[in-house]
Each structure stands twice: as C-alpha cells, then as structure tokens.
Amino acid sequence: MDTNTLIVVAVVVLIVVAIVAFALNKARRTAHLKSNFGPEYDRAVEESDNARHARAELREREKRVRSFDIHPLDAGDRSRFIAAWTQVQSEFVDDPRAAVSHADDLLADVMAARGYPVSDFDQRSADLSVDHPVVVQNYRSGHDIFLKHKRGDAGTEDLRQAMIHYRALFEDLTKTDLDPPPVRERIRA
Nearest Cα to 146, choosing from 106, 101, 102? Predict the structure, then answer.
C-alpha cells in the first residue's frame, strides 16, 4: 500500500473509533440517568418534546442538588417531625381538609430542615427527584389533590389519598442512617 492509502485507512479507522466512543459514552450517560432517576427518567422524557432535552434537564437537576447541603435530620428534628406527622394524621379524623394543608406545610418544613430549598412547588419536586425519584411522584399526586382541595373540588376520599401520597415522601425524608437504604439505592440493586 502506498502512503496515501494508509493515511486514508487510518483516518477512516479513527473516525469509526470516535463514533463508537461517542455512542458508548452517550449510552453510558443515559444508563446512569435511568439508574439514578428510575421512573422519574421516563416521566421527564415523556413530558419533554425531545429526549435529549429531558436528559440535559435531569443532569442539570443533579448538578443543582449537588450544590446544596442535603443532610439527614438530627435526632431532635426527626422526633419533632414524627410527632407533628402523628398529630396531622390524628387531625385527619376530625378535619381532613386542615390535615392535608398541615401535611403539605410539614413536608416543606422537613425538606427545609434537610437542606432542600423550598421555593415553588415545581422546583421543590424537581430537586427531590434527584434523591427521591420513586416517591416524588407521590408528592406531586398529593400536591395535585391539595390544589384541588384549595379550589373546593376534593372529597374526603381524595384527601385520604393525598395523605397516603404525602406519607410516602415523609417516611423517605425522615429515614435515619440505620434505616434501609434510600429508594434510589434500592433501584440500582
């Protein structure tokens, strides 16, 4: 083979190797997002007009949440929040509407104590999806019912469902280091 042919073959081989490396890297990053976000990955892709934009949004969420000081509750806060949750559940018997409102407020307080910013609901749920991808949908469902309740459109059964949804997130947020691993770690297993 002459020199020009060798150069052309080498360039073609390099291009093929670069394309394969790019494809493998993209597949690895997608697998990472699917593993970390679980059902939240599927939800983000489904709601987006473009899967690439959805993946970029999920990576941005991870980056944003890494900048926070997220930490477990100390024993005192954990006990206080569990007592408050028990009170909210008891309140449901006599006043379901007030109980759901108090549960929504209590979740925001727990999130703040853990180090999550508690700006608007959409940002809170996006931030929570990084560390709590399975139960964040419960939070969204509970909050949707809460908004229905504020409009006067939620019945007692709806409010009961909101409490069930809220409880799933509350339990996940108040786990200790001695509790089973977070949901995200169970997804990976």
Answer: 101
What does the pLDDT look like over 158-168, one tens digit per residue?
999 999 999 99
State the Cα–Cα distance between residues 66 and 53, nearest whole angstrom: 20
**Is 161 found in the same domain as 107?**
yes
Given CA atoms 151, 157, 163, 167 in this order, what sign does their dihedral have?
A: negative
Question: How many other CB atoms are there within 10 angstroms of residue 129's CB atom?
Answer: 28
Domain containing 148 equals: 75-188
Residue 72 burial by Cβ neighbours in a 10 Å radius (0-12, 13-18, 19+): middle
The Cα–Cα gap between 14 and 133 comes to: 40
Q: Which of 42, 66, 90 marks a domain boundary?
A: 66
Which residues, in sequence order, are CB contacts of 132 under 8 Å at separation 6+? 139, 169, 172, 173, 182, 183, 184
Largest Cα span, the chain:
90
Q: Would you tell me how many other CB atoms lie within 10 Å of the CB of residue 168?
A: 19
Residues 109 and 58 in one domain: no
Report the percentage of the chain scoring pLDDT > 90: 44
Reported pTM: 0.73
